[in-house]
Here is the input.
Amino acid sequence: MDFRFDEEEEMFRSSVKEFLDKEISPVADERDKQGPLTKEEEIGFFKGFKRLGIGLDIESLIGMVEDAATLAIFIEELAGAWCSLVYPFGVSMASVPLVTFSSEEMRERLLPKVEKGELLGCFAVTEPNAGSDNRGMQTTAILDGDHYVVNGTKTWITNATVADTCLLIAKDERGEQIFLLVDKETSPFETAELHKLGIRAAPTGELYFDDCHVPKENELFTLIGNAIASGEVEKLLADRSDESEGIDMSGMADMLAKGLSPLNLIFAFLRSGMSVMATGISQAALDASIKYAKERVQFGKPIGRFQLIQEMLYNMTALTESSRLLGYRAFNLTLSGSPEARMASSLAKCYACDAAVKVAYDAIQIHGGNGLSEDLPLERYFRDARMLTIPDGTSEIQKLVVGRELLGKGMSALY
Here is the structure.
């Protein structure tokens, strides 16, 4: 087992750092203070990632899925520079393949946006009365002829106010969860902006569905089934460079066969990503603290020579390195389709996000009064880290998921 990044991965990390230091870090603090990004701003930043081989076009997305380490490195470094860009990019990733597998009419309208890397999406689960208890959601999607009629409200949805499409989870007439790809142009819904403690530049809001008609072919399994039947999946995976062996989809099928729902598969990806995001924040806070401890002089010597400062740096390093190992492992298991992904992603998400809060807290403490200033990014690191402990399952819920996975069926603390 090799815990080191290979030469190619190290070169990619260096390229990402160089890009972020030049293009993102200089604008992050001031732009973050201004609140949610506009749609045009998001697209502009995302298009810039193409210089690193990262993008919202289908070719870039397949390349990222094929290489878990590359995607994790990018997410970690971007989160350390400006966490507000990571989550909107991540939730938009799901829309591209679904649009690629959609009806001919939808593809004709939206594929030009996909090809330009301009299609933004959102993922709608949480409701005003259904947060951790997603089984208690009240949004309905009732089949009426060749359309589903959707009614309900979703809240705390990243990208809600700027998204072109929404991957929506609702309940059908049997009370079963159903996944729908909602195209805002043909199935309009209303949105409202929400303001929050951290990750302020990432648009967040509520979605309101009032007799919203969604074509029945936009149901998730119908989309996937039609793509397989038409040969689109095989064509997409085969249309790669000679050096690529394509993507092995058997692992994902195995995860579904072992009882993981599509929602759990999506959560495994999001939670793995959030653990790596948290690691990026921790590393940024640690780097700033090491630099400051060498430069700041008190009582006639650098504060880094004080034992308590060195103990804080030790704890921050241990938490950051542990988070990285858990996060990259979870990412690898998730993208390879391992049945272990659910527990690994919950374990990594809980540990790394809680750790980032502690690391950012100590970073502020090391910086003293300067750590409280908005002129430095420490307070932004702390607010962003605190945010990560709640979305896609609170830290407490992650512990219960791990407990259930350890103890087996029938031992869930929730149901």
Confidence is low (pLDDT under 50) at residues 240-252, 255-259. The domain at 7-98 is CATH 1.10.540 (Butyryl-Coa Dehydrogenase, subunit A; domain 1).
